[in-house]
UniProtKB/TrEMBL annotation:
Region (Disordered): 1-38
Keywords, comma-separated and alphabetical: GTP-binding, Hydrolase, Nucleotide-binding
Organismal lineage: Bacteria, Bacillati, Actinomycetota, Actinomycetes, Mycobacteriales
Alphabetized NCBIfam families for the sequence: PRK07198.1 (NF005536)
Residue stretches making up the GTP cyclohydrolase N-terminal domain: 20-206
CDD domains assigned: GTP_cyclohydro2
PANTHER family: PTHR47259, URACIL-REGULATED PROTEIN 1
Name of the protein described by the UniProt record: GTP cyclohydrolase II
Coiled-coil segments on the chain, per record: none
SUPFAM superfamilies in alphabetical order: RibA-like
Residue ranges constituting the GTP cyclohydrolase II domain according to the UniProt record: 239-382
Transmembrane segments: none
Species this protein is from: Gordonia jacobaea
Entry keyword annotation includes NADP: no
């Protein structure tokens, strides 16, 4: 391969990469520390090591940063990033201590997060000193969040700034945690009711054979999948999340770029998200604590291309966009109604030591069932106030409440579901 001498010239990969490809499908060697998932201490559990440079140290399948591992590959390919780069973690430690909680040492309570992933410097000092490339999979920081809906709630008198949780300029003070997926495969298989062998084979095949170790290295139990993770926003003191005497308001929200970011009115995602933030602020101001866990599962985890195809199918069908065909149109395109599979979602709640949610800001029966099924008690369920539902989203909300979503309002009957309520494509 040659490079031109123009402005875009980059060093050839051959100058930096070893001459042979290092296959991952053979046993790594004796230098890899073992992982005992659910062990009571970090030392007994062992570090998660997904380094791509020292193969003998690896004790997992996959690499760090989820889907962004592909961008890291591009950075290496383009010459922008050295493969040998080691993160300088000076001053990066969490702003708040989370855990350890009893749930961390229950191998079945948490199967998709590394509970020790935020505190690697404290948890694995010996391995770090010995040169093992142990990286955080969780980061915790502080932020101010400023949303027009919260400013509106202040203007309308629903919220009052207290200079503690909510500032007069409308900024809410939060602690936020970014969490990468770290899957303990035997535990994930159990949640999905399949065998580990079956799960590993399907993961291997459905990613186009991307991770051969899934099928060749049964000694590796932990997989860092190439998917998005979660971000958690906490209103109030994060330590209070584990305190059963402190009232907890919580929403678990699945990503919807079109509504959450761009304000598209075909669904209720952003209104519900901002409503939950308002409820969380109120809860924190009343001596409680609030939590919003945001999962990267765009378009019911079907992706945005599928989602937009479904929008067209809904709006072009004979009779227009009706609630009685809402789920059917998704199933026609995607083969399923939903791929979010809430089975893994409660893990992040257990990571914070949560044992009960006083006010769950969600209408989803799937989320409710997953949370209560994982042993977390739920008190009140808070539905979306009618005035926050955009006109074009009536189809969605009717279809969902008819299908079993929680509502304190009226459940639409069959006649109601057949009435077209969604806009056409050109209006
Ligand atoms: Zn949405």
């Amino acid at each position: 391969m040659s490079t031109d001498s123009g402005a875009h010239a980059r060093p050839t990969s051959g100058q930096r990469l070893p001459g042979h490809i290092r296959l991952t499908s053979h046993s790594g060697g004796v230098d890899a520390p073992s992982i005992t998932w659910g062990a009571p201490t970090a030392a007994a559990r062992g570090p998660v090591i997904a380094t791509t440079t020292t193969r003998g140290h690896r004790n997992v399948v996959g690499t760090h940063s989820g889907s962004y591992s592909v961008y890291r590959a591009l950075a290496v390919a383009s010459g922008a990033l050295s493969r040998e780069h080691r993160a300088d973690l000076t001053n990066t430690s969490p702003t708040d201590v989370v855990g350890p909680y009893p749930q961390w040492s229950d191998p079945e309570a948490i199967v998709s997060i590394d509970p020790w992933g935020a505190t690697i410097a404290d948890s694995f000092p010996d391995q770090l000193a010995a040169g093992y490339d142990v990286r955080p999979t969780i980061a915790i920081t502080k932020a101010h969040v400023i949303l027009p809906e919260i400013a509106d709630a202040i203007a309308k008198g629903r919220l009052v700034p207290d200079n503690e949780t909510l500032l007069p300029n409308g900024a809410a003070l939060v602690t936020k945690a970014a969490v990468e997926p770290v899957w303990y495969l035997p535990g994930v298989a159990k949640r999905f009711g399949c065998s580990e062998t079956e799960l590993r084979r399907v993961l291997f095949e459905e990613t186009g054979g991307m991770y051969p170790e899934l099928v060749t290295r049964s000694d590796l139990d932990v997989f860092l999948p190439p998917i998005g993770g979660q971000t958690v926003y906490i209103f109030g003191n994060p330590r209070d999340l584990a305190d059963p005497t402190v009232e907890l308001t919580a929403r678990v929200h699945d990503e919807c770029n079109g509504s959450d970011v761009f304000g598209s009115d075909i669904c209720t995602c952003r209104p519900y998200l901002t409503h939950a933030i308002e409820e969380c602020i109120l809860g924190a101001q009343n001596g409680g604590v609030g939590l919003v866990a945001y999962s990267r599962k765009e378009g019911r985890a079907l992706g945005e291309v599928t989602k937009f195809l479904v929008y067209n199918a809904r709006k072009r069908q004979v009779g227009g966009d009706t609630a009685d065909q809402y789920f059917a149109r998704t199933e026609c395109v995607a083969g399923v109604q939903d791929m979010r599979f809430q089975e893994l979602m409660p893990d992040v709640l257990h990571w914070f030591g949560i044992t009960k949610i006083d006010r769950l800001v969600s209408m989803s029966n799937m989320k409710y069932d997953a949370i209560t099924g994982s042993g977390i008690a739920v008190g009140e369920r808070v539905d979306l106030p009618d005035y926050l539902i955009p006109d074009d989203a009536r189809v969605e909300i009717d279809a969902k409440t008819a299908a079993g979503y929680f509502t304190s309002g009226v459940i639409p009957d069959a006649d109601e579901l057949r009435k077209a309520k969604g806009r056409g494509l050109t209006t």
